[in-house]
Amino acid sequence: MKRQKRSRTTTLFNRGFQAGLSGKSRDLCPVNTADLRSHWMSGWRQGREAHWSGMDGVSAIQADPALH
């Protein structure tokens, strides 16, 4: 069975979420293209909100968009 290709925007969002959740700076965004950068930044913002809400480790599973 072949693996389904993942959308680049979804991957960037999930990576941004993980970076935000771990408390990393938004300056670490690996993307220069404005369109793709916006997806990473959206994920980063949601990750930071989860981090500020006290979600860390196992409690962050419910907020992780990669698992929905």
Compile the SSE list and pairings.
Layout: H1 8-21, H2 34-52
Description:
The chain is mainly α. It has 2 helices and no strands.
Feature tags:
68 residues; mainly alpha
Segments where pLDDT lies below 50 for 5+ residues?
A: none
Structural shape: flat
- For the residues shown, what is the average pLDDT? 82
Q: Oligomeric form of this entry?
A: single chain
Largest sheet: none
Strand residues, percent: under 5%
Cα-atom Rg, whole angstroms? 12 Å
How many angstroms separate the termini? 22 Å
Structural class of the helices, strands and pairings? Answer: mainly alpha
Condensed summary:
49% of the residues lie in helices and 0% in strands. It is mainly α and 68 residues long.
